[in-house]
Amino acid sequence: MARIPYKIYLSEDEMPKRWYNLKAVMKELPTPFIHPATLKPCTAEDLHPVFCKELVDQEFNTTDQYIDIPEEITEYYKTYRPSPLVRAYSLEKMLDTPAEIYYKFEGTNTSGSHKLNSAAAQVYYAKKQGLTSLTTETGAGQWGTALSMACAYFNIPLKVYMVKISSQQKPYRKAVIETYGGKVIPSPSDTTEIGRKILAENPGTGGSLGCAISEAMEVALKTENCRYVLGSVLDHVLLHQSIIGEETRIACEKYDINPDILIGCVGGGSNFGGLIAPFVGDKIAGKNNMRIIAVEPASCPTLTRGKYAFDFGDTGKMTPLIRMYTLGSGFIPSPNHSGGLRYHGMSPIVSKLYHDGYFEARAEEQSKIFDAATMFSRSEGILPAPESSHALKVAIDEALRCKESGEKKTILFGLTGTGYFDLAAYMSYNDGTMTDYIPSDTDLEKGFASLPEVQVRF
Amino acid sequence: MARIPYKIYLSEDEMPKRWYNLKAVMKELPTPFIHPATLKPCTAEDLHPVFCKELVDQEFNTTDQYIDIPEEITEYYKTYRPSPLVRAYSLEKMLDTPAEIYYKFEGTNTSGSHKLNSAAAQVYYAKKQGLTSLTTETGAGQWGTALSMACAYFNIPLKVYMVKISSQQKPYRKAVIETYGGKVIPSPSDTTEIGRKILAENPGTGGSLGCAISEAMEVALKTENCRYVLGSVLDHVLLHQSIIGEETRIACEKYDINPDILIGCVGGGSNFGGLIAPFVGDKIAGKNNMRIIAVEPASCPTLTRGKYAFDFGDTGKMTPLIRMYTLGSGFIPSPNHSGGLRYHGMSPIVSKLYHDGYFEARAEEQSKIFDAATMFSRSEGILPAPESSHALKVAIDEALRCKESGEKKTILFGLTGTGYFDLAAYMSYNDGTMTDYIPSDTDLEKGFASLPEVQVRF
């Protein structure tokens, strides 16, 4: 067979026409969302005031393994997809490893990450439902950018509650969102009750993702024909992100690539859940025995040191109770540079799969992540996002293990995005001022203390 | 025939194996470089102390229409090429034009532009010649980034003299260059004679591209086994950039696309010269009658208001005399946001083709450029570089003209790069503080006054 090219691009015709719904193949389902007032499972009706109707339907769909991607979304996907599956020839050479390394690169669109895959779908359904505005939150800014792009394309106004400290540290992210027409409001703000309350208690606060979520949800609830959209964690977001896994699967089949190890970074879990979907689906069905590894920051060790428990998704405790791996909604991650992975909880689907032993998890320290990122950039040319570099760090470790053992394994990882907006982090790494932080058990206990009492009742 | 896809990617096998050497097909050649001391044409030997030997040979090659791309460079090209030829379906829809719009997008690599095409070639030849270090200058930083990436790949040390004001305004560009291992020196610096002289005369100066070129050349001349590399203007740079035009030609042939209008932005002229190479070659041979348009900033109107004259390429007047369109090496362009187009001169090949009437030139104002850039980003998703937006501005104008006339023309433009490092410019546009500047005739006269006396002798 001919040599595998550096970059495998599927043609438009080969693109997946369906999303992969993991819940239809899981042997046990994640625990449903619990309404904090009634302590009963949430119904679709409970969620309709907050989320778009069709997305709620997807959230509750546990039967259809495949869900058709609407034509309009496919058309939008074609403006930036398929994304390339890249053979890391240069990295392999630099590492002098017998392993074959591949990465699915989601950073070729302007949002710089995979986030656009779900943004496109959510905005389309909002437009279809006749909504006239949307709200969301953004931390590092990738989700806000992605949603702003999709809103520009489908022509619907957007308010983005951006963690205040991020909006100050990343004025350029704010500028991109505004170029695409999104309105950026630094959070906490005086535009919401929860924002005013938090400001009154902590006038100098730089905000948090949990707080920004609370503000965006409040506005959606109080504004006519407006809904809130979330870029990670939820099942329908993982569903949309399965386009990553499906494209990867099709490319692997076309070129007869059989990954022994599949690696992704985890924050809220959406890119990871999307990448592994068809592969872990086959694993559940006993069709493969792939090693799957989730990599998280040592500073926010949700899977490796968190509890599998009921918790709120936000600081303001406005969400339903979600059974997931969590550090507690009161856990405040140290300000490391992987903003996209700094979340106290984890996708319920990813949490359940982990709980049931379908994959391993590792926590990695920031400075090691940047060692790997620099090595990668110098060989493969791409400047990776710190978040994505968690996955490539472990891919490099596994490739070096192959070098020792002489094994010719096939390693595939998800490179979720580029680091063009993370250069302050690269600067601190380059000039040697970057520090690592691992929370002590006492730090973690403080976070766990914020878990809702309701735990004991289940 | 099936619908043309959004993005046309050639396969690795379809990639051009040869560069296109315009000088072999031009009816009249550009005037050779003139040695400022002897006032005779420069010989290859004159240039060897400054430039890599093989590059000098390419600079003097007027006979071979095609020059083989070495295998090692092709391998490197494959890490980020072929670049996509994109059908701008969304922009067409937004403009409601009967025209078909295509763009060749060179911004998918981390340097964010086409610059890497020549950087790859120049660094390879330097390595092959056994050189142990390289120097260069960078203004906006794209060339410095590209060269730093190529130097990391081929493993050769690099010093980048970066216009001081740019290194201060764009610390993140500096961080990228350093991540790839390049050493950044703000210019003017005390590391060179010319730098110390300029600093003594103007202690507070923010530097200029011409001054940075002088410093980098001085270091190359004084350091053993070191050479200087330049990212634009020179004939061998245009040769390497012909990969853009060749890929475009092959993709057009494959999909039966026949551009009526071909548009590119011009600064030093390398991307424009590379894009148009095979097309203007055919035009010279009478095989097509394509309209070709070069677009430059109204603030630095080299083609539209400059003189076709002998001039130095740098402020320090260290280069040979080059016959080109120029505003005079003493012309100081206003600080607009298209740093990559702020050069007093123009590629001798591009200058000669313009002089001989093979294409038109237009000068556009900055605020209009950003109107077009914003419209483009909201429809096509890509955030364009201000430089590239000059080309897309005119593409939009031509498409709107088609809308009026009802003509279904095919418009193809070069989108040279992304604007991720130009967000200060987008911010000033978004908040309404962006201003336009058009030099007065008196401003231009001051620049022309710096032209060397030698003019009259030719």
Detail the topology: elements first, then pairings:
The structure is a homodimer of 458-residue chains.
Chain A (H helix, E strand, L loop, with lengths): L6 E2 L9 E3 L23 H4 L5 H8 L5 E3 L2 H7 L7 E3 L1 H7 L4 E6 L10 H13 L4 E6 L3 H13 L3 E6 H6 L1 H9 L3 E5 L5 H9 L7 H14 L3 E3 L6 H20 L6 E5 L4 H15 L6 E7 L4 H4 L1 E6 L8 E6 L21 H8 L4 E5 L1 H15 L5 H20 L4 E6 L7 H8 L10 H8 L10
Parallel strand pairs in A: 5-15, 6-7, 6-9, 7-8, 10-11, 10-15, 11-14
Antiparallel strand pairs in A: 1-4, 2-3, 4-5, 12-13
Output the strand order for the largest sheet of chain A. 1-4-5-15-10-11-14
Number of E strands of chain A: 15
The gross shape of chain A turns out to be: globular
User: Whole-number radius of gyration of chain A?
Assistant: 21 Å
Q: Which range does the strand content of chain A fall in? A: 15-25%
Helix content of chain A: 40-55%
Can you name the CATH architecture of the largest domain in chain A?
3-Layer(aba) Sandwich
Largest sheet of chain A: 7 strands, mixed
